[in-house]
Design a protein that fits this description.
Number of strands: 15
CATH class of the largest domain: Alpha Beta
Number of helices: 13
Number of domains: 3
Oligomer: single chain
Largest sheet: 7 strands, mixed
Strand order of the largest sheet: 2-4-3-1-5-6-7
CATH superfamily of the largest domain: DNA integrity scanning protein, DisA, N-terminal domain
Strand content: 15-25%
Length: 399
């Protein structure tokens, strides 16, 4: 069955599978480090149960899913509203990207200024919060603050974070080697376990890192340490030298790179997610596309006698099996149990002797979603005798 169906696969089907695999892969990678990853895994389990129940003909379970489908969609939108908004923003950024970005020279100069200045602030126990923008837009996450647009410099940063500055308690936002604004308030993280030993600056840094791909650098005025919040995690660094390495990695990931390097990176990263995405795409295609195609299948099924009159016995039944042809959608045949097929020959009105019984659709037990197309042969020859009658010693020739 599957070999015959696969031979009909066309270019459109291959492109269909590839596109769905890419979309599933993107979602898996996106939720991999997201705070909604646990919920996403739960939804995958629910989706698997639904697909299994639908493909196996579990009418009640499928009906329940259909009844609550609209509610589930609304619930998903509510649960993942931040993630969905971020996904669409990321798609917009990718689609509008034209290869422009921070040059390597600018990145190295910016990194040197940050390492030197933040190291000085840490030694002097002066608190600071610096946001280095990645690819994601940050405007909707920032509140208050003052626009600046000035070129990054050591003097500018130390002036902003001076205790007497009006914006020293807020965040400085860097983009493309320039300070776009200062004194900005960031969203606070709701992960209390991660921020229990930190102050408000660290909580704000982690909050933005959970909602974007920005790197948030925090200088603690109490401990004199430098911490980095990125990808929903916060880490205290050992010193300014480690900050330099982290900034170098961050810039290398965010800067436009040659297409060949991007392809090589894509081929070597997230192998498990690629396998899961391809498997999911093939299964979805097999269930919804291939499974929706009409299909006919033949089965040899046994003949079983029912309601045999009292005092009678069957001495001859020919044939013992008949061949039927049933039709339906291909997915109806995926997990079909052939034991559900049988001929139920009702002999309640039968008389003693030999007779030919023509089979009808009502005599064929089969899954309800399948239509009966053919019965071969169209009937069976049966002989009934009284239980008290002597049986001939000549063996009967069964067909």
């Amino acid at each position: 069955m599957f070999l015959s169906a696969i031979q009909a696969v066309g270019i459109a089907d291959i492109l269909d599978i590839a596109l769905v695999a890419v979309l599933v892969y993107a979602l898996l990678v996106w939720f991999k480090h997201s705070k909604a990853a646990v919920v996403a895994k739960g939804m995958l389990v629910v989706a698997a149960v639904y697909l299994f129940s639908r493909s196996t003909g579990m009418v009640m379970t499928t009906g329940i899913f259909h009844g609550f489908f609209a509610i589930l969609v609304v619930a998903l939108v509510v649960i993942f509203q931040e993630e969905l908004r971020a996904v669409f923003e990321r798609i917009a950024v990718w689609s509008l990207a034209s290869g422009a970005g921070t040059s390597p020279t600018g990145s190295e100069a910016q990194s040197a200024i940050l390492v030197r200045t933040l190291g000085d602030l840490a030694r002097e126990r002066i608190g600071a919060l610096v946001v280095v923008r990645g690819r994601d837009p940050l405007e909707r996450h920032l509140q208050g603050g003052f626009p600046l647009g000035g070129e990054l410099s050591e003097a500018l940063l130390k002036s902003v974070f001076d205790f007497h500055s009006i914006g020293h308690d807020g965040a400085v936002v860097l983009e493309g080697g320039r300070v776009t604004q200062f004194g900005s308030r960031l969203p606070l993280s709701k992960e209390g376990a991660k921020t229990a030993k930190f102050g408000t600056r660290h909580t704000a840094a982690l909050g933005l890192a959970e909602l974007s791909d920005a790197m948030c650098i925090v200088v603690s005025e109490e401990r004199g340490t430098i911490s980095i919040a990125q990808d929903g995690k916060i880490e205290t660094l050992r010193g300014a030298s480690q900050l330099e390495k982290r900034l170098s990695v961050f810039y290398s990931e965010k800067q436009p790179r040659p297409r060949q390097d991007q392809i090589q990176e894509f081929l070597h990263k997230n192998q498990r997610e690629k396998g899961m995405a391809f498997t999911a795409a093939v299964l979805l295609w097999a269930l919804f596309v291939l499974g929706a195609k009409p299909w006919r299948q033949a089965y040899p099924i046994p003949v079983h006698v029912r309601n045999l009159p009292s005092g009678m016995r069957v001495t001859s039944l020919s044939p013992k099996k008949v061949r039927i042809v049933v039709s339906g959608q291909m997915r109806d045949f995926y997990w079909i149990d052939t034991r559900r097929f049988e001929v139920r020959l009702d002999l309640a009105d039968a008389n003693q002797g030999s007779s030919y019984v023509r089979l009808s659709e009502n005599d064929i037990a089969r899954p309800s979603m399948l239509q009966l197309e053919e019965i071969d042969p169209a009937g069976v020859q049966i002989e009934l005798t009284s239980k008290t009658a002597k049986v001939s010693k000549v063996p009967h020739q069964w067909q």
